[in-house]
Write a structure and sequence with these properties.
Number of domains: 2
Structural class: mainly alpha
Order of helices and strands: HHHHHHHHHHHHHHHH
Radius of gyration: 19 Å
Oligomer: single chain
Number of strands: 0
Shape: globular
Strand content: under 5%
Largest sheet: none
Number of helices: 16
Length: 287
């Protein structure tokens, strides 16, 4: 993978992630899910994001979401499916995205034909092998939805394909979910305390993860990454970019650069709205 391809893969994630995140920051998804009978933010989050895979088990959600404490998942799944079907929850998240977009942009956002064609082509060219969340999202029919929902679903396919690849890179590095968060935090990511609230791990569990990393000489006992730890972190990030390169290969650098340019105005508006906090648990940079 060339340096240019890696840069484009990373920049593409930077511009699509805030659009995808419209569904999960703010309270609109929780409101839409609670209208169907679900209870609380985490049940709405796990159920709405997992819904494209069907009425799956808590173990399946834990495996595909990876860095969440399985106990947090088990408090929401499979109970969520007793309140609403996956099909109804997919519609609920579209409703939430529509409402959140109107909140952020002040009116319903317009999507140019060029942008929709490019991002649809990118999503169709994403890699789905060994990527369950991406594959499940790719077969959702949005042909009758608004252009903005079609855009949002395409960003979701792309980010879930990248996310599935990222999990493969973490597993290849022999990291658990908690250890992956501890290493990420140590190497310049969000404060470790942020993952206690957002991913459901206790302080003691995260300290234990740090100790396991120290035993592997990936960080010191005080939580400072070693050269080996920094090297592993950089290897994981590079592998994640490499595993997300299919759209870059399919569209070519010029078309991907154009896609990033067209998407950037929407992304900047979302960033300026402060809907997404910085730092945030997804590790998205402000710029």
């Amino acid at each position: 993978m060339t340096v240019e391809q890696q840069h484009l893969a990373r920049q593409l994630w930077h511009v699509i992630e805030p659009i995808h995140a419209l569904a999960y920051f703010g309270n609109r998804t929780q409101q839409a899910a609670e209208a169907l009978g679900l209870r609380g933010f985490w049940m709405s989050y796990f159920a709405c994001r997992a819904a494209p895979m069907g009425s799956v088990s808590a173990a399946t959600v834990s495996a595909t979401f990876f860095n969440f404490n399985p106990q947090r998942v088990a408090r929401a799944i499979p109970d969520a499916w007793s309140y609403a079907s996956p099909e109804h929850l997919i519609s609920a998240r579209f409703e939430a995205v529509n409402r959140t977009a109107t909140d952020v942009f002040g009116s319903y956002p317009e999507v140019s034909t060029d942008l929709l064609e490019l991002i649809s082509a990118a999503a169709q060219s994403a890699d789905f092998d060994g990527r369950p969340l991406a594959a499940a999202n790719a077969v959702i029919d949005v042909s009758r939805e608004s252009p903005f929902i079609q855009l949002w679903q395409a960003t979701t396919v792309l980010r879930e394909s990248r996310g599935d690849g990222h999990i493969a890179a973490l597993i290849d590095a022999d990291l658990t979910g908690a250890e992956a968060l501890a290493l990420f935090s140590a190497c310049g990511g969000p404060p470790l305390a942020l993952f206690e609230a957002s991913r459901g791990w206790s302080h003691e569990e995260l300290v234990q993860a740090q100790q396991h990393l120290a035993d592997r000489r990936l960080m010191t006992t005080s939580g400072i990454p070693t050269d080996d730890g920094l090297s592993l972190h950089n290897h994981i990030e590079a592998a994640t970019d490499r595993l997300a390169r299919a759209p870059i290969d399919a569209l070519g650098p010029q078309q991907v650069a154009r896609l990033i340019e067209l998407t950037d105005a929407l992304t900047r508006k979302i960033t300026e709205s402060r809907l997404i906090p910085y730092p945030n648990p997804i590790g998205l940079p402000r710029n």
